[in-house]
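Researcher: Hi, I'm a grad student and pretty new to this. My advisor asked me to get structures for two proteins we've been looking at. I'm not sure of the right format, so I'll just paste the first sequence and hope you can take it from there.
Model: That works fine. Here's the first sequence with its structure tokens right after it:
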Amino acid sequence: MHVLTRFCQRNGINQRHVLDLLDSPRNTMQLVILERDGTTDKLSHDRATIDVIFRRFAGQEGPNVKNSTSASDNDSLSDYYNGLVGVKLAKERKILDRTVPNTFTGKAGVDWLMDCCTTVDRREVYEIAELFVTHGLVWAVVEDKVYAHQNAPTSKFQPTKNAIYGLTDKGQRTAGWLPPDESPIDGESRESAKNSTSSRRENKVTPRDSNNNRLNVIVNDPALRLLFREYLRDTHCEENLAFYLEVREFTRSYDNAERAKAFTRLDAIRENLAAAYGLYNAFLAPGSPCELNIDHNLRNSLAARMTRAVGDDDSLLKSLQEVVALFKDAQTSVFKLMSSVGDHRL
């Protein structure tokens, strides 16, 4: 349902029967929107981004602990109805002569990543799960020797019911279950951050410049962007960031085509105009699913340009150039709107 919602918003689908379904109590899921490379579509998997995903994996509302292993290990996915509940954990699990708290099966881990994130296949799920192990956030309590024998022995995460994992101290600190580690290195880092903050204050940067600079950092950093996206979703204005990023990709594609002299071909011009109309219908047209709150005069200019007949082939390129300029103005307007938020709470 969440994927359908985003698809309808992005493509300007606003038929009444579709909106009724999307507004129904069935649509409760809030997926983790994974950041991707705009060119390759590969997942961003820098350390900070993995930490953000892991905090949702561990449970945004606290650990999802079950009193019995039968409850934690079953295949039911009803626990994950809203995507905010973490992976199912067994409160205590008897492993030979010891009892290990807060463990989950490899299958439970991959089920959560598959159902609560915008992963497209199990390859991406395994990639994220292995990074949890690589970064020391989870550890293997019990390995599935049969799986290890049948598959590559280099696999760091085993997605089976027989493989058991627990959260390391580092993972529990990342999840917020334990207080931050007050190591000497952390102390130095915090002191450095404090000095850096003081230095910025002494530079007498105006609040607007400070917000603009901060937002520039956020939209260009996958981990911060993921957090900011979730903050905007909570405040019901995620469409602002979506539009900003979509226009960035659109203008980047336009600039690349212009440098390659692709606009000597009518089909290239028409393709870019079609992309522009898609953006307009999704974010700017009256009554669009993600209609933005932008300057009235700019909105009228866009509406006049986008609804005016394109004309003959000779005027196509001029029309495209005018549309690109207007979209850049709208993007700047939305950027200012986002940067005016006093506290991004990241």
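Researcher: Oh nice, that was easy. Here's the second one.
Model: And its structure:
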Amino acid sequence: MAGDSHIIREVGNLERLSTARHSLGIYRCVIVTARYCNGNFDSEASFKSFFFSALSRVVLRHPALCCGFVDEDKRDASFVGLREIDLNRVVRFQTYDSGDGPSYENGQRKLLEHEHLQLWEHLETNPGWRVVVSHLPQADHETVKSQTSMMDVVFAFHHAVGDGLSGAVFHRSLLKELRSTTSTFDPTKPCTPLVQLPEKIELVEPVEKLLKFSFSLRFICGFVFRALIPSWLLGKGPIWAGAQYYLSSPEEFKTHVRHFSIPQEQLKCILSACKAKSVTLTGLLHGLHVTLLAQMVPDADRLSGHTPYSLRRLIPKSEEEVAVQVSVLEIDFPSRFFRSSRNAAGSGEPDWEEVWKVARYYGKLMQREVDRAPKDNVVGLLGFIGDYHDHYRKLLQKKRKSTYEISNIGVFGERACISSADVHEDGSGWGIHSMIFTGSGMVTGPALGATVVSVQGGPLSIAFTWQDGIFEEAFVDNFVDNLETSLRELSSKEEKVVSILETPK
């Protein structure tokens, strides 16, 4: 990117977590992918010009997309405003190989694994985001019964640029601009790939300046106690968190990705079952993670689950911002939560009584966490870390403390395009069929990452990522298969119950 950059502000505490991790090579990016349904274009050049026209307006709408970083390797990294962005350097166009299957899952997986491998280069003159547009061959669009074209738009971004919800914000903005551009685009006037950026870029302030964090004496004492007193001294067994493998160099970094989708019809039944048990979908997923992992690792004494959650409800006008406004709840699950499951090692079928027990426990703790925020919140403690690079270097020498993470960014609030009628409903020919949300495999964080997103009226997507060396691929494949099967079986059982209740007497 040509031109000088200028410092806007220092990164905040949450953002510094990610600039430090990226500098050390132990976390690369967050990705939110959307499968778009769209009209046909006369030529590749015409489509590229059209897409650039829409994307340039998205960039100008979100200040965080107009920035790079300096001094990532130092204690105080900063955002810098860029003068311009050459879209040819941050956007790549490709077509899936027809050998990747009818829905191109293999192509998606390979693309996501490749993008999660990449480090961000020359951030002082380049933005911390990129886009890959992958067209599905016209001959095979099984996901949408229509004559429309389809493409996956991968939005990969530095975690200091935004949180998971920021990826959904980006796609909401892009969909809006694609629809708007449809009525104004003139193919005889090619769009320049150079986006000239404003001289004054007003970034959202970091969360520690937007929220007033406070702490009770009980919270502080508990935090210090847990940090200083080893678990064995309290009679607790170690947390099982996969192999204690850490990178000897950033070159060894590699993220594995697995993914499956649950159709809307089955999702409705799953949500109905959750409602009947007074639990959330995220709670259900915690229950399945704990019980299925306990079966696969019967000698595990304790499991631990992380749940990132948004702070945006506490911050006015933040719903449509690309920013990092998230906290995390960590829950310890001792063996009393999964005794029966552990005794059923190898069955692959969850103990549903224990599943719902874990789900309710998660719901109780999460509700308490949300109700008291921003009081007694771990994000408020980040300012006490000091040197974040040193913090992560020390973590690289310690045992991992968390088994898994479940990050659910919820429902994308645009109705999914399932048929040609949906695609052309608003006259623009643009819609989104489904989405996938993934994060890089974590080196110092939870061993397994599960990320969740759905589209209104469309499928639920659950993806799994892990760092190479923590698990054997066969272990995760088995776990993912068991979890998917459990969800589909729950859907089938609930469907039968609903059918019986709705049958006329």
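Researcher: Is there anything I should tell my advisor about the second?
Model: You could mention this: The chain has a mean pLDDT of 90.
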